[in-house]
Each structure stands twice: as structure tokens, then as C-alpha cells.
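In the laboratory, one determines a bound structure by crystallizing the protein with its ligand and collecting diffraction data. In a computational setting the workflow is compressed into a single prediction: the sequence and the ligand go in, and a structural description comes out. We illustrate the idea with S-adenosyl-L-homocysteine.
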Amino acid sequence: MPSRNATRPASARIARKSDGEPEVALSRRGLERLRTGHVWVYRTDLRAPAELKGGEVVRLVDDRGWFVGKAFYGKQSQISVRLLTREDEPIDEAFFARRLAQARALREAAAPDPELRHAGRVVHGEADLLPGLVVDRYGDCLVVQTLIEATDARRELFADLLQELWKPRAIVERNDVKVRAHEGLPARKGLLRGADPGPVEFLEGEVKLVADLLEGQKTGAFLDQAENRIEAGRYARGRALDCFTYGGAFALHLARRAETVTAVDISERAAEEGRRTAARNGATNVTFQVANAFDLLRDQADEGQVYDTIVLDPPAFAKNKASLAAALRGYKEINLRAFHLLSPGGVLVTASCSFHIDEPAFERTVLGAAADAGRSVQVIERRGAARDHPTLLGVPETRYLKALILRAL
Ligand code: SAH
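The predicted complex, in C-alpha cell form:
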């Protein structure tokens, strides 16, 4: 049947012997998902041999046994299959070494001057075609998250490969994250290579930041906002407010141009960290305040306070689909207060990292807030996560961070 074969990828036409991997047959819907660019297939869209334990590399086939790709298989998660390749190639150490080198090549292309890049994401999971693997770099240290059964089972291999490629002083494991529970994996943190690096100082643009790789939030810092923080710093002026400041990263960028900055977080520990970071930078115009940002925004709006620059970088309000409506109300409320507080010509940097809320929904919410506040608002920039957090076309889940830079008239 040459005509039918001709529509198949080369790898499928050549009847290559499989590398002994178990076969998983995809349903039509599963195939369609992969065909349209996604890399996940749900349990309901495939047939897998019962003896699979989870964490294996499997060979994906269609209902006639044609090769479709190779993937990590998960037994616990509803996402059973995460695509590794659409080619019929061996999935071995050399394969993963190539993927890590490709990931590194993107970072070098996006920020060619290593002096300007002291920290950043070096592997962004699915978006680097390394599903379930996240690696961040802080100076000469790496922090690793193995978020699914397959990457968790291979963490020693990844540690070896990363050690070889990046020659870090230490590799820290930050597997103390909730998503691992969906994979039946325990929370865990500690050292994979080297000794406890202690707090690691790094430069973000002109600002000195510090990450506690073992105890800080995420892998030590919110690296996805790095470029947005530098950009926000360019617009800062007058009286500035940074809500949900964590360790003060936005606040310190604002402080370089603004007269005064108020930085707000509900966590006392975050505020203390922020004060230390401000001192390190010699920034005397930043005040850290421990408060619930919702209350503070409402009270200050009621008092008629005015700011020229405001940053809203809250945690993900929508943790799942069920909390979507409440999350949208939350985003609307903080943005509404911010529009009440902004001076004419004032700039608002507003972000959402909930992947259940896509860009149009976020923009509609912010627009609703502007309308309720009676403000006309210009969009200066529509932004996402930093370039070292690429998104994968066809996988909307990788575009979780949205940021708008707005000017209220
Ligand atoms: N803007 C930070 C990251 C913010 S993470 C950066 O660029 O590094 C979200 C922060 O919001 C956390 O530090 C958390 O403690 C804080 N937070 C959560 N709920 C809050 C609330 N209701 N009011 C103020 N801060 C809150």
C-alpha cells in the first residue's frame, strides 16, 4: 500500500525493530491531541498493558500498530503519556544528553552574554521536550525538580548529565511540591550533588537578589518574572506600590527610579528577607509592610491614597477549574483597587500565573476592573514569562504566566 505509506513519517515506513519498549495504543482522540501539537494524552484516550508499573518509556502506536512516537508513561496521573519524541529513536542517556544540550543552546541564544545572566531556568519541562523535569540555575548552583514518575526514577541520571554539562558547585533537589502528589510521589528535598550552598546571591539586571535554594519558595526565586521585573523598573516613577512582593524583587527594581516604594506581603518571613535584600542593594527608599494585600488595597483606596506605579503579582488564585470563578473575582478586586489608586498617567504592572485562566480571560477581567473604576487604560506591553521559560506551541498549559503593563489615563 505505497500510497498510504507515503503519508506516514519516514520512521513509520521503515519497519524498525522497537527497542523492546512496551506498546501503548492511542485512541483517535489521543492521536488527534498529539497531531495538533499537544504532548499529553489522558488515561481515557489510550490502551496500555496492565503490567506497566509507571515511569517507563513506551512506544506509542495507533490502532493499526503504526508508530506514533515515544513517551514517558505514568501510572498514577490522569496524564498517562507525555511525549518525548515523534521519531523512532532510542531513548537512552545520549538522547537525554542531547535534549539537555538543546535546552542549554536556547538559553545561550536568548542571553548570549553569560555575564548578564546570573540565574535562570535551564530546563522548562514539556516546553524543552523534557516532560516533568525542571532545572533552575542560580550562579554556579542548580536546582532540580523531577515532577513525574519517569523523571523521578531517572533523577540520578539527570544529576550526572547536568553535572557534566553545567559543572555546578551543587545540585539541590526541590521536590517538595504539591503536584508530585498527583503522581503518587512523596515530597522530598535535599542535595543531589555537592554541599549545601547556603544563600546564593545573583544579579538580575542591576539588582542583587538572594535565593535560598533549600528553603525559599519554588526553587528559591520566581525566575519566570525576571524580565518583567527589569521592564517594570523602566516604567517606575514617583510613589510606587509592590503587592505580593515576596523577597522584594519587583520592589527593588522599582526603587531604582521611583521616589518611594511600599512593598507588601502577608508573610513576615518574606518581608524580613526583603528588608535584607534592600539593605544589600543600599536601597533606603523601600518600606516593607506585612499585610493582606486585599485589605491594604481596599483601605488605601478608601483613604484616597495615590500611587504612580503599582505592581500586582499575586500567587495563582485558580489552583483548579473549580476555583475559577472565585479566582476571577480575586483578580478583578485587586485590579479594581489598583485602578482607584493610580494617578493620571500611572502605570500598573499586573500579572496572573494561573494556567486555568488564559490570556483573554485575564484581559477581560482587568478590563472589567478598569471599566468599574471609570478609567481608560492603555496597554503598553503584553508579556509572559521570561525567554528562558519557553512555551510550546500546541500546549497552552506551558503559557501560564500573563503580565500586562498598563497606563491609566
Ligand atoms: N512578586 C514576587 C513573587 C510573588 S509570590 C517576585 O517577583 O518574586 C506571591 C507572594 O504573595 C508570596 O510571597 C505570598 O506570601 C504572598 N501572598 C499570598 N497571599 C497574599 C495576600 N493575601 N496578601 C499579601 N501577600 C500575599
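Residues 1-17 have pLDDT under 50 and may be disordered. Keep in mind that any predicted model is a hypothesis to be tested, not a measurement.
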